[in-house]
Design a protein that fits this description.
Length: 217
Amino acid sequence: MMFEKQRDLIVKYCNKMISTGLTRGTGGNVSIYSREDELVIISPSGIDYETMTTEDVVVIDLDGNVVEGSNRPSSEYGLHTVFYRNREDINSVVHAHPIYSSTLATLGMEIPSAYYLNAVCGGPNVRCAKYALNGTEELANNVFDAMKDRYVVLMANHGLVAGAKDIANAFNKAEEIELSAEIYYKAKLLGTPNIISDEGVQEMLVAFKKYSQVTTK
Ligand SMILES: [Zn+2]
């Protein structure tokens, strides 16, 4: 079987999406890109995360053709491959339907730098990509455009996408941005949140380069 290590990571992080509340049911999907092989290791479509095994994970090419595996790949694979084709800094994508991010996305809102770790998105705001039908190239392109110079983006009326150099960092960004969305939402209920300046965010991004990479185990 190809890519056993990556298959293990896909199963592990799919289960982690459920245990951390980043998604419910079979919502969301995760992938890892093997850039040297131009192949994507991705979660399958419609399989319960709790019973998913490494054999259930699917290997596809950048056009979505199955290279190894008996399941269909996630129907949202286009949200992953658009980044692997066009962003050399992204080798893993996590797509989830977390409550607070999805709530803000349903309002068409972006997430400003209210909570300081919002800066893990790579800039002063997490933008919200325009709505399009799930599973379409139009949606993948909207998400890609809205994630320019960023590592996380909201998807209108749907959820969140995070990308990074590896799956641990992509997952970490998804978790931090969901926490940021929750804090922003709750702060707005009590008053007007203070927003960190663009300069303040830039200072943090410089500091992150030195200190805050998570590592894959
Ligand atoms: Zn989705």
